[in-house]
Design goal:
Length: 250
């Protein structure tokens, strides 16, 4: 078991990549803390974890709610060993449709929320701890309509370097996982009609070296590697899991 008796705090744990990672972590012996903003989705995810996870409702756009979630974890387990800062979402907005509110919303969830999740969780992490941040293939390429998601994810990639440097003296590693196109509920929330979504998915698939979307379970395995001692000499790095989407000429 790669995470025996470790305490793993997972944001965005109610769905997709976060939920599959929670299941894998639990099967590797971790005590899982699931964080999500919606009570009923949290309860449903808790059932998928056989009722064995600590479920904490927190909207990571609010620092006080992150603090409460970390405090609930400290009060039950005393510490966090593994942080998977994974919560994120966006909607499609081309240049002319972007408003001040849209920018603020994307920053709050995908950047500020991620930053304060790391700050608050790191305060109760100990030597040997590991932080994994979900960024995106949009770290390195542009995608029309997703300017704010791409910018906030690139900023999160940058955080991994700086906070990795700051936390290295405490023996805490910080890494990014960069998903490509992964089959999760993410796409049903981005505000595109089904027909447009299918067209976009088909055109992305053509650009993926392996010619298919990835599965959330494939991301979970990469996150487990970074979270566990298998990656004991890896910090500040980014593990790209995108079927070649950003790596091959096409
Ligand atoms: N799927 C992809 O192709 C892809 C590609 C690149 C990067 N990513 C990144 O991967 C991460 C996980 O996405 P996914 O694909 O697994 O999508 P997903 O299934 O939609 O999961 C997103 C998670 O984020 C949580 N969340 C959203 N808003 C939140 C808030 N304000 N506070 C707390 N939690 C919140 C959601 O929980 P509740 O709504 O229940 O709160 C959910 O658990 C995201 O950061 C996403 O940007 C995904």
């Amino acid at each position: 078991m790669k995470l025996k008796n470790k305490v793993a705090f997972i944001t965005g744990g109610t769905s997709g990549i976060g939920l599959e990672t929670a299941k894998l972590f639990q099967s590797e012996g971790a005590n899982v803390v699931l964080v999500g903003s919606n009570e009923s989705r949290l309860a449903a995810a808790g059932k998928e974890l056989n009722g064995n996870a600590l479920l904490v409702r927190a909207d990571i756009r609010k620092v006080v709610e992150i603090e409460r979630a970390v405090e609930a974890t400290r009060s039950k387990y005393g510490r966090i060993d593994v942080l998977f800062a994974n919560a994120g979402a966006t909607t499609v907005a081309p240049l002319e449709a972007v408003t001040e509110e849209y920018v603020a919303e994307n920053l709050a969830l995908n950047f500020t929320g991620t930053f304060f999740t790391i700050q608050k969780a790191a305060a109760i992490m100990t030597e040997g701890g590991s932080i994994v941040v979900t960024t995106s293939f949009l770290n390195t390429i542009g995608f029309p309509g997703l300017s704010m998601l791409a910018a906030t994810k690139a900023a999160a990639r940058s955080l991994v370097r700086t906070l990795g440097a700051e936390l290295a003296p405490r023996g805490i590693r910080v890494n990014a996982v960069c998903p490509g196109a992964i089959a999760t509920p993410f796409y049903s929330k981005i505000g595109l009609a089904d027909a447009t979504l299918s067209e976009v998915a088909a055109s992305i698939t053509q650009k993926i070296g392996l010619k298919r979307f990835g599965e959330a379970t494939e991301l979970a395995k990469a996150v487990l590697f970074l979270a566990s001692d298998d990656a004991s000499y890896t910090t500040g790095a980014a593990l790209v899991v995108d079927g070649g989407l950003t790596q091959f000429w096409r």
